[in-house]
Amino acid sequence: MDSVQVETAASLTLEIPQIVTPPTTLLPSKKPVFRISKDAIRTSLRASTVDAVLATVFGITTGGILLSNFLVELDASPVVFGMLSSIPMLVNLIQPLGAYLSERTTSRFRYALGIYGTARLVWLILAIAIVIFSWGGISSQQLVLMTLLIVLATHLLGGLGCASWMSWLAMIVPRRLRGRYFGIRNSAVSLTNLLCLPLAGLVVSHWYGGNIQGYGVVLLIGVVFGIVSIGCQYFKVDINPQLQNSLGSAPINNPDELVALPNTSIWKNNNFLILLIYISLWMFAVHLSAPFFNLYMLDTLGIDVSWVTLYGSLQAGANLLMLIWWGKLADRVGNLPILIFVGILVGLTPIFWLGINANQLDIWLWLPLLHILAGVTWAAIDLCNNNLQLAIAPIKNQSIYFAIAAAVAGGSGALGTTIGSFIAQFAVWGGLLGLFAISGLLRLAALVPLFFVQEPGR
Q1: 3 DSSP 8-state letter
Q2: What is the number of other CB atoms lying within 10 angstroms of the CB of residue 209?
């Protein structure tokens, strides 16, 4: 689901080139056209970056390694881990409904406030449930079930808002600066991961009441950061979807790009349909194994959670160092060549896990190197996948395109995770290691449709 950079988020300044607006009579369309000022764009991009940083703290505490370790402490089964990973993807099937609803509103900000504010407050229920569990009021299995229900509820709400949020950001960020800006923004996210993830891991593993109570503490802190991040969106230029859909093919922030994309029917847009094929195959192959690397380290190898969070920080650090470079390279050579080349490395990565054990050499050398490789490669994949989707989707009904892509990605990813969770339990398939090998081969095969995608402007 994106990569950011080296100054503190509040001080990040994106240099916006001077825009010279031609007289309205020179525009090729008589449909309503409006402009966003340079200062408004700059303020919006800064607010979006700070929003991403604060939301990352929330995401660290409500997913990933910390949530996985919480479920390990509760003796959750591999099927639970498969469900935990498949739920966020499966609920993406609701994104077309969210896009439909958002296009009938008059404010991207108010829509996002209602959706994401509610989704983040829901996690307070789990914090309260952990307190009740500590007092003996509920069993571990009940707490596992409650966790899955909260994950389902919050991601259902997020699925209703994601397409609208993507369309909002796409209208604010100038097309020719997307690689650079998202590189900066995502680098700030990686820097936040680098600093906050090991701190949260230390709190959880050294909390005097145990790992479960420690997780409850960091969860409560994360929810506070998540709510504050919603407030940052107030400082972004609000977009009226009704006015956006009345435009032609012109991005509103750069009149030099008026010739951009035709507003053809989604199902007649062959370029977009080929992209959907790639997305579906890629997400299936990746999520066949993605949820189980942490489980393999925490459960099969028995590595302490503090080590696993340290590896996550190394991955975030590698991501941080490479993102701006990948963003600048994408602006120069395009997103497709990067996706193909780096995709091969990502396809080989699960196969590299086949020789990993819990000996000192692997713990101190090979596991850190594997996570650094993942940070470098996924920085490029997330950034370029996002930029390619933004480039192909036209302005009119843009959120519908994003919603369909997300629904396809979510459905295929959830299917991959579900199948992977069952394969992992059967020794005849080689267990987790057999699953890693299958996933690697399917990732390489999923790259084939990219050779038939055309990137606009390249």
Answers
A1: E
A2: 10
What is the distance between the alpha carbons of residues 377 and 395, in angstroms, rounded to a whole number?
30
The predicted-structure confidence for 280-291, as pLDDT tens digits, reads as follows 999 999 988 887
Residues 283/413, Cβ–Cβ less than 8 Å: yes
Q: Which domains does the chain have, with CATH numbers?
A: 37-250+262-452 (1.20.1250.20)
Three-state SS at 310 = helix
Among residues 275, 360, 373, 264, the alpha carbon closest in space to that of 318 is found at 373
Over its C-alpha atoms, the chain yields an Rg (Å, rounded) of 22
282 in Cβ contact with 35 (< 8 Å)? no
- Which residues are bridge partners to 187 per DSSP? 4
Cα–Cα dist 221/219, whole Å: 5
pLDDT digits (tens, 9 = 90+) for 122-164: 999 999 999 998 887 888 889 999 999 999 999 899 888 888 8
How many whole angstroms separate alpha carbon 292 and alpha carbon 214?
23
Alpha-carbon distance of 398 to 440, in angstroms, equals: 33
Instruction: Write the DSSP assignment of 113-125 as a string of letters.
Output: HHHHHHHHHTHHH
Distances from the Cα of 24 to the Cαs of 171, 212, 244, 245, 376, in angstroms?
Answer: 19, 61, 17, 19, 45
